[in-house]
Batch of 2 targets.
Target 1
Amino acid sequence: MSARPGTVRPGGRTARVRTAVLRAAGDILAEHGFAHLDLADVARRAGVGKTTVYRRWGSVTGLVTDLLAELAHDAAPHRETGSLPGDLRAYALLVQREAADARQGALLRAVVAAAPCDGRTAAALRRFFEVRVEEWVPCVEQGVARGELPAGTDAAAVVRAVSAPLHQELLTTGVAPAPHAAECAARAAYAAAVAGAYAGAAPVTGR
């Protein structure tokens, strides 16, 4: 049984072919959107045989799945600053820089637009975001251990709270958020976490 695209990182010529194909696919997505992503066109841009692309990826969704896996793998590792506000700020600015990147911002918008119409693309996109969140969860967990946040804080929810408004701005306006927006997102997520917003279910109150 063959491995899912993106789960094995090959070496040698296979690695060079994969790199060229994923670069070509990303360029087409960023320039023209998901609807114009065609395996034959990708093969031409990458300078490889069409048969190679069809045999390895099989379909457009297989290629996009691998592309998202590669983007998640290559994302900058989490940065520990010694305080949770500093860590959240570092993450927010990373998301902002990625959104402001002409290629990656456009690529993300294209995949998000396609996801509701294709289950496999939607699953790959979810996994992309999961990997990004998992990378930064230890920063929040360390903040809990230092007593900066209440015990029982959902670390993943805090990380998502930082990036969500930035991705929302990119996807709904088509304009990348500014660094100031990243600063605001980090401060808002931290303030909510300190207040206990992510520390378990809210208590049920009587009427």
Target 2
Amino acid sequence: MTKAVLTTKVTPVYDDLPEIRYHFPKSYLRQVSEAVGDWIVYYEPRRSTGDPSSSGGRQVYFATARVEHIIPDESRPDHFYAEVSNYLPFVRPVPFKEGSLFYEGNLKKPDGSTNKGAFGRAVRNIKDSEFDLIWQAGFGHVIGIEERTRPAPDAPEDPMPPLDGFHETPLTFLSDVPFEQDRRIVEQLISRPFRDRAFSAAVKSAYNDTCAMSGIKLINGGGRSEAQAAHIRPVEHRGPDSIRNGLALSGTFHWIFDRGLVSIDEDYTLLLAKDRLPDTIGRLLIGDRRLIVPERAELRPHPKFLDYHRREIFKG
């Protein structure tokens, strides 16, 4: 077994659903096969689509998951699916390079420039130590090794605001953090309390601590937001801990959403269960009764998870 980086675009060329599966051609079969039973990180490249001139991708590692097995694509010769489990988004998307630090050593040439040939491979096997650095950088908030500083007054607006409105300090010190490497990391990544904290932080950051149904944002004196992170497809229904399977909701709307008293249509229109809610709930909803979603399309609720909630949870 060995760990790997799997590249997937904002609008994938292949039939990717990173929370569940990764679609790839036979040319990468050996690299993916070596990662079966081990952990991978997902990388979002600069190109957002299959068009070579496209851009807009964040060039970040954005999530981790575990490869369970590989199955052939019955509809497309010489293509395969890697089915994954334990998907978890990073609280802080991690750039492939920070200062002089390349998280993947093979991406750095001896002169310090980027090895574009290595970078062009969609699947790249990595060392355990490189995975550890990426993992620590992505979950620094949750594991308590990352400091936070307020942005400078003239700092540009961050398109992906970090948790609680703070900007992150560079993580150049991570290699000095003591870890009982793989065992401790795996224990963390499959621990429900850890996953709940990471999922909550990532979802609330994506929604800027704002309730997606009411538009209300409340922050206490200690910087903690009132919003909660809700799963669209519940964990007990095999729903992944993905930002695209999450919503930031106030306590009240989290309660009624989990109980199927409100749901979300394909166009993000809010659906209310008939004759089951008091009129006061309607008055708390955002004016046009459409869900507030993140600006970046790749962070918005995925249609598959919304469809599941409407079919299996909603009591409308």
